[in-house]
From TrEMBL:
<feature type="domain" description="Pyruvate dehydrogenase E1 component middle">
    <location>
        <begin position="487"/>
        <end position="710"/>
    </location>
</feature>
<feature type="region of interest" description="Disordered">
    <location>
        <begin position="1"/>
        <end position="24"/>
    </location>
</feature>
<dbReference type="InterPro" id="IPR055152">
    <property type="entry name" value="Transketolase-like_C_2"/>
</dbReference>
<dbReference type="GO" id="GO:0004739">
    <property type="term" value="F:pyruvate dehydrogenase (acetyl-transferring) activity"/>
</dbReference>
<dbReference type="InterPro" id="IPR029061">
    <property type="entry name" value="THDP-binding"/>
</dbReference>
<dbReference type="Pfam" id="PF00456">
    <property type="entry name" value="Transketolase_N"/>
</dbReference>
<feature type="compositionally biased region" description="Polar residues">
    <location>
        <begin position="1"/>
        <end position="11"/>
    </location>
</feature>
<dbReference type="InterPro" id="IPR004660">
    <property type="entry name" value="PDH_E1"/>
</dbReference>
<dbReference type="InterPro" id="IPR041621">
    <property type="entry name" value="PDH_E1_M"/>
</dbReference>
<comment type="function">
    <text>Component of the pyruvate dehydrogenase (PDH) complex, that catalyzes the overall conversion of pyruvate to acetyl-CoA and CO(2).</text>
</comment>
<feature type="domain" description="Transketolase N-terminal">
    <location>
        <begin position="147"/>
        <end position="303"/>
    </location>
</feature>
<dbReference type="InterPro" id="IPR051157">
    <property type="entry name" value="PDH/Transketolase"/>
</dbReference>
<dbReference type="InterPro" id="IPR005474">
    <property type="entry name" value="Transketolase_N"/>
</dbReference>
<feature type="domain" description="Transketolase-like C-terminal">
    <location>
        <begin position="729"/>
        <end position="862"/>
    </location>
</feature>
<keyword id="KW-0670">Pyruvate</keyword>
<dbReference type="InterPro" id="IPR009014">
    <property type="entry name" value="Transketo_C/PFOR_II"/>
</dbReference>
<protein>
    <recommendedName>
        <fullName>Pyruvate dehydrogenase E1 component</fullName>
        <ecNumber>1.2.4.1</ecNumber>
    </recommendedName>
</protein>
Amino acid sequence: MTDLARTQPSALDQLPDRDPEETAEWGASLDAVTRAAGSHRASYLMRRTLERAESAGLALPPLLESDYLNTIPTAAEPAFPGDEAMERRITAWNRWNAAAMVTRGSRDGLGGHIATFASAAWLYETGFQHFFRGKEADGSGDQLYIQGHASPGIYARAFLDGRLTEHHLDRFRREAGGSDVPGLPSYPHPRRLPWLWEFPTVSMGLGPISAIYQARFNRYLAARGIKDTANSHVWAFLGDGEMDEPESTAALALAGREGLDNLTFVINCNLQRLDGPVRANFKIVQELEAQFRAAGWNVIKSLWGSAWDELFALDASGALARRLREVPDGQFQTYATRDAAYIREHFFGADPELARLARGLTDARLTECFHTSRAGHEPRKVYAAYRAAVEHKGAPTVVLAQTVKGWTLGPGFESRNANHQMKKLTGKEFRAMRDLLELPIPDSKLDDALVPYVHPGPDSPEVRYLQERRAALGGPAPARRVHPVALPEPSAKPFQALAKGSGNQEIATTMAFVRLVKDLMREKETGKRWVPIVPDEARTFGMESLFPTAGIYSPLGQTYDPVDRDQLLYYKEAANGQILNEGITEAGSMADFTAAATSYATHGEPMIPFYIFYSMFGWQRTADQMWALADQLGRGFLIGATAGRTTMTGEGLQHADGHSPLIASTNPAALTYDPAFAYEVGAIVREGLRRMYGPEAEDVFYYLTVYNEPKVQPAIPAGDGVEEGILKGLYRYQEATAPAADSPRIQLLASGTAVHWTLEAQKLLADDWGVAADVWSATSWSELRRDALSCDAAQLKGEDRVPYVTRALAGAPGPVLAVSDWMRAVPDQISQWVEQDWYSLGTDGFGLSDTREAARRHFGVDAPAIVVAALSRLARQGAVRATAPKEAAERYGI
């Protein structure tokens, strides 16, 4: 044993060694090389050996990091297929107009971001010229997740190819109206510019996870025979700082595990986030490489421009590669702004071999390398990386492209910590930019007041080239296209089953919904379009009956014998499975839902997703994704199951949802309902299918709260206006039978499971206190409010419109008492439009672990508490004796 031999136990000790002598010889050879040639040489030989083993197909764990060098050497780059000079001119026009647009907008304090696109221009332009497929071929094309802060560059390109005018550019960040030319949203917002943007991405971190699940959903559509998506490739453009967001990396393992080679991440590694370096004391590229490789991704590093080739050629010992790897990002950013003398002293002076290498290089070459020469700024290197990415099979690819943030904007911008907040260039800086980009703009058109937009002309060689390239790739990009495809209306039978009630059987509204969807999934025309999504608690929601019939989607099918195979409702995975059972990831489930909810536009294939989850873990945890869903014009059903603050017996604070409808009410696209009965669920779902998938499809989605409390489900009441009331948000469910003609009257409004407590209170009020109470089912507090706000706006314009809630309660005698399993702010949304005296009961505060009955008594929302509150409001009006509330409290032990 030598001094270099290992001294710690190895996991390999557990494996048989059939030839210990041969093993010792290999170890001795490594020791000898280390002593004779040094540790760097020994490391190099080991890595070469591992590389050879990998190419031979030997089963070895891969290294997670490689040297801080380009994955594709210059000599291995494929021939560039385009006219590089022409593409440089096109990119120069786009750079100029992007900077001009933001600078002109800054006159009025509108701001905008310049530096991000300046660094990433070639990452986009190379894709637009050679890779990104448009929608005119198969209706799908590629899916492009554009980095939000790069939007000015995309607008500039749309201006160059004739899709936008100067008037559009001058209305960047001006969307409030006042012009016949629509304004341009600050970032990719499909709801604001639906013909251009397809995916909202500026809430950083949502783009990466959405892109992964979009790529997976593309495979899902193909596996289920709905659409051939083999030619659709998903491209996600991200910032290195953005990768700190948890959603950015949450689903990397899923993409690697399922081999999503229809997906490419392009991470713009300019080493800067919004306020400074991404990893000042470390190296973000190396960190990301290890993270992606560990998750099973193919990693392509595209770091150094061609100016570095001479330096690497002179590096006979590997000292340059070692030095590049050890310098932290914060220091490298400094090199990008300092002179040659500083670089010679602080970078090359750290190693005698490097110092000798540097003596043969001019100052100009050194500053070129360290200031601007990055692979992300050279179309040939970007093309090589993209081509390698799309040709790689069996795994997703990430391209780590190094750039300089603010490149071409001048020394005042490039690599500066503050450049994210810098919104304009001076006239002097524009002149310098013009000269660098070699644009034919005379000085007479440049001044500090208003820099011009420039365009070579619609018939110029640049525009013709651009348009020819896009035509060859399938049309303009990015682009959003909707070809309306109305789905047939489902048969009435599934809804009639709920309308009849459950007889003597007790079922929860959660189960009522699941039964309804199970029946709808059997529909011949539309059944296959339902996409059930659940984050690993399908059995909690009673969905296990779908396992053997619909199957759980897995690209591998089922490669094992399930432990419950001999049971009727066994766990069945299938390559064409319909259920997306995502594991414990609400974020992943929401990304799934979004991909399915927007398939009508992305692929021209309307799908009907429903995502069922613990209501507490929906809006509270993933409301940002739900906002992006609205921005992307998604359609489908979000189901907040085990809803309410008091229905989850024993679960406690973190499971007890008392506020999700309030959060949901902030989303303009969310139609929020809190049904009490199965027939209400049926009516709401049927109307949702009509509104979202009928001939006049609307860009909305539904949020239904359903409960896990079994109750006998009544049949839908007879009479006119019940279904209208369900959909509008309020109807009288049970009118009081007055104990006497002059009985005190009160109106009890309740939603969800609280309707049952209120019915109990109605009986107590009549039997014990001689009070006649009408019980109303408030299926949607937020829809009542939305209607009322619309009426208010109309009244300000001179129209005579009265809110539905006001009309519904008009003339109803007595005060109004509202009750729900939510905090009081939920029903209080409509209080100002109720003409009667208003009061509400709710479950404000933190949840707690106990029985339903104890929890409801704690919050003061059970039937006796409702009685006391009702008597209190009546006593204030003199309708009952003043002592009645106290007597009731004592009687019921409150």
